[in-house]
Design brief:
Order of helices and strands: HEHEEHE
Radius of gyration: 14 Å
Strand content: 25-35%
Shape: globular
Number of strands: 4
Largest sheet: 4 strands, antiparallel
Strand order of the largest sheet: 2-3-1-4
Number of helices: 3
Helix content: 25-40%
Length: about 90
């Protein structure tokens, strides 16, 4: 029960997610921007913690791990996300 409140003091969703996965060896994460014909895969994007940035008209995942980046690139390579462009901005904690 205490686990769910462990990171409650952190302000943003990004800070909470980053803190909860800090066990990664290199602490490298990505902000991912998805643009293009995203409507057909919006539910899939939401399931991967993307949110809609209405001002910039794109989907954003503020704290994707290296593994998640690999999965997103597989979706593109396999044609599961046709018409989608992803931009990865590398950052460290």
């Amino acid at each position: 029960m205490a686990e769910q409140y462990k990171y409650k003091h952190l302000k943003s969703h990004t800070e909470r997610k980053a803190a909860s996965v800090k066990a990664h060896e290199d602490d490298t994460f990505y902000t991912v921007y998805a643009t293009g014909d995203t409507y057909p895969i919006k539910d899939d994007l939401q399931s991967w913690a993307f949110f809609w940035d209405a001002d910039n008209k794109r989907w954003v995942n503020e704290c994707a791990s290296e593994f998640e980046r690999f999965i997103f690139e597989l979706h593109l390579a396999d044609g599961e996300w046709p018409g989608i462009e992803l931009e990865f901005v590398k950052r460290t904690i």
